Queue: 2 jobs
Job 1
Amino acid sequence: MTLLELKDITYVVKGKPILSGLSCSIAAGEVHALLGTNGTGKSTLAYLVMGCEGYRPTSGNLVFEGRGINDLKIHERAQLGITMAWQEPVRFEGVSVRDYLALKSREADTAHYLEMVGLSPDLYLTRMVDKCLSGGERKRIELASVLALHPKLAILDESDSGIDMLSTQDIIHVINRFKQNSAAVLLITHREEIALIADRASQLCRGGIVCSGSPRDVAEYYKSRKCLVCVGEVCDA
Ligand code: ADP
Ligand code: MG
């Protein structure tokens, strides 16, 4: 079943097209890797799907579970089950990890979400979500909170969300937890070894999807077209 469809999305900022005619779909429960060099519009795509302030398609349609969501605000999309791990990991002075997770979950006992991201509940539930935690620890706690929400779609923008504070093995472990929770994941990553664990992958170039398919095929395309050094001018994609 299709969960999210991006239909012919164009996004223009100050007269500059950032995405143009982009179409792509993500199935329920699918881990979909999005590859692309810097500046191709990956984060912009993530913000458009999440519905961040100022990010509305100039034309085209975002469809979630068969419903047009172009006009929905970020919290309305969150209520539908779309969520994102943010660029700067959380930090709240005076809020314990236990309370922070309780805010995000309908369940009373959230300890197992910490275990899912490799943190011992005994050591972390009573800690404060403040500057005493390292960036990597806060990132793990944020990912635990995203898991606790039981989203239908989790957007993980590795280059921006700081999940590159975690090792490849850690990220693969967390993605597998999302899979077990039947969440779809839009995984934006530069690391081929991470993309390879996805069910499907797409390559973004010059504002549109130029290749979709198995992660192996798309990663091969990425390398063979020298997309790693693409400046958006010389590639014949
Ligand atoms: P990626 O995440 O693939 O590195 P981004 O989505 O961050 O790329 O950016 C894509 C392009 O859009 C870049 O050229 C960037 O400079 C430009 N861009 C992004 N946001 C804005 C904005 N608010 N105003 C103008 N240009 C923007
Ligand atoms: Mg980015």
Note: The domain at 2-87+150-224 is CATH 3.40.50.300 (Rossmann fold).
Job 2
Amino acid sequence: MTGQLKDFLATRKQVIEETLPTFIQKLNTTQSLKNAMLYSLEAGGKRLRPVLVLALLHTYKKPERDGLATACAIEMIHTYSLIHDDLPCMDDDDLRRGKPTNHKVFGEALAVLAGDSLLTESFSIIVNDPYCPSEQKLRLITELVKAAGAEGMVGGQVLDMEGEAKELSLLELQHIHENKTAKLLAYSLLAGGILAGAPECDIENLRKIGYHLGIAFQIRDDILDIEGSEDRIGKPVGSDSVNEKNTYPKLLTMQGAKDKLNDHISQAQLFIKELTVEAPLLLEICELIANRDH
Ligand code: GRG
């Protein structure tokens, strides 16, 4: 990773981490709910999705301030999905981001409600963004619903649950992860493009880049569940195999999964080179996704 990318990631992560709690602190609601929301939001994480929004504004030489609210809204939706995914009725995990999961600290009922609030408030954050024109807000929200709802992440989670302990084809696995993981990640790029006023041809390219990066991100996740270090990923390794999950290494062998990951990264980089702007930062982020260790 070049010093420039390292610096970009570190500085933008800090801005996002300073801004995220401000949206929760100002809510006029009970402190116990705010505490449960803040606990998971402040538990760390790579902040990849919000950083991608800011990277797009940077790429189009637009003020990053214009993307900050949407970036935080996406991170809140991502955090809600992790809280719900960890619940006993889903993956039943005790550790997330190196800390006890939300329901272990606050109980199941408050964990469900903290997730619900993070999801709902994220829409309010976009609607109330003072830097974003109304037509952009409408488009941002329409696309967000497609990425995070029944036609996206939630639908993907259901397919994933239904596929457990069944032998899936590669196409079926791809379909699950396109919905469960890739669509929200792709939305981060798309939202950045919309906020930056990118031309329509670029917006369509950003969807393709997001698809390939999202699948690559998931393949790397599957690989890390076998080869990763518990300290780095913040949760036990080997849980996919215990939960009889269908994963890329299981379907393709470890080498096959690594080859597939590289194919998706190359595809993403090809589409990045077709954008109407030079995007060295995005090219480097592709490498980061391919090689991440957490
Ligand atoms: C419960 C509606 C609902 C959806 C859950 C995203 C998801 C769907 C579940 C998470 C399970 C999982 C391990 C998915 C694989 C890819 C993924 C989203 C990993 C976690 O994202 P990171 O690595 O996490 O960006 P950090 O902690 O860095 O933010």
Note: The pocket of geranylgeranyl diphosphate is lined by residues 45-46, 48, 78, 81-82, 84-85, 97, 153-154, 157, 180-181, 218, 221 (CB under 6 Å).
